[in-house]
């Protein structure tokens, strides 16, 4: 079932894309000549058959197709809004628990919308599309905003984003899209599109609270991401989590105590994220933009060496994170959210919806009856 209200908000966001994308930290030479608006919708799903249920789906994953043909996006609205019983959220300080609990779903919706609809849809790849033919001015190549000199690398005929960046590519791209969301969500005009505030900057109002929850949620996701890092292989097992850990490091390096990890116990059992909401615009957003600019330029110019060094530096799990913080993340980890899904039955010529209680028994019964039918 289509969620009309959410689809309408996403539609407004896509309509606003030509005005919003230029706010990202690279010039027009590194942006697509024309934003290819995605085919999108928000669905309320009855069931989703798979090992996990995503909040949104963006296809295809082939950047060369996204670059020239476009892409599709589906947001699963009732997955976004599915709520577990209220409980204290680890690593969020006591004074932030109320605002985080109240606005985390709205913040996640803003983040997902920006990530999927604009994040994956923006950014140009400089290509030699066929021998001697380029999609940029090869004789007068654009100037890199990082080095201040003309770019020297680009994709050769037959090369794609995936073939050049290889296994690192999916997580790198998720990080880029997440950074687009973190770069644009402090724009109060965008928050207004989602129904929050009047477009005027006000960190103490509802829109400001949604913005604060966006940044706080990302910082917490970076901490809890350590569950998905394997100390034996020293590798990440989940692309999005690796990306969020990198963004946490960006927050921590923003300066002026914008984001810090506070604790008094040696085992970090009381660790809390302190994030100064009054410095999102002055420190958080500029730090994200600086990092995002590098991610985009290295991707656009097929600069694997620079991109690899940048991303591996920011996703490297040092001794303190591995030996101190990760054990505490595991100790405070909540059980993975389980979705209990309904079934439909045909009874007397009518379709009947059968829902189940939110319990392990309800989940098992749902699966059994779905298999039976």
Automatic annotation (TrEMBL):
<comment type="similarity">
    <text>Belongs to the peptidase M49 family.</text>
</comment>
<keyword id="KW-0378">Hydrolase</keyword>
<dbReference type="GO" id="GO:0005737">
    <property type="term" value="C:cytoplasm"/>
</dbReference>
<keyword id="KW-0645">Protease</keyword>
<dbReference type="InterPro" id="IPR039461">
    <property type="entry name" value="Peptidase_M49"/>
</dbReference>
<keyword id="KW-0482">Metalloprotease</keyword>
<dbReference type="GO" id="GO:0004177">
    <property type="term" value="F:aminopeptidase activity"/>
</dbReference>
<keyword id="KW-0862">Zinc</keyword>
<dbReference type="GO" id="GO:0046872">
    <property type="term" value="F:metal ion binding"/>
</dbReference>
<protein>
    <recommendedName>
        <fullName>dipeptidyl-peptidase III</fullName>
        <ecNumber>3.4.14.4</ecNumber>
    </recommendedName>
</protein>
<dbReference type="GO" id="GO:0008237">
    <property type="term" value="F:metallopeptidase activity"/>
</dbReference>
<keyword id="KW-0479">Metal-binding</keyword>
<dbReference type="Pfam" id="PF03571">
    <property type="entry name" value="Peptidase_M49"/>
</dbReference>
<dbReference type="GO" id="GO:0006508">
    <property type="term" value="P:proteolysis"/>
</dbReference>
<keyword id="KW-0031">Aminopeptidase</keyword>
<keyword id="KW-0963">Cytoplasm</keyword>
<dbReference type="GO" id="GO:0008239">
    <property type="term" value="F:dipeptidyl-peptidase activity"/>
</dbReference>
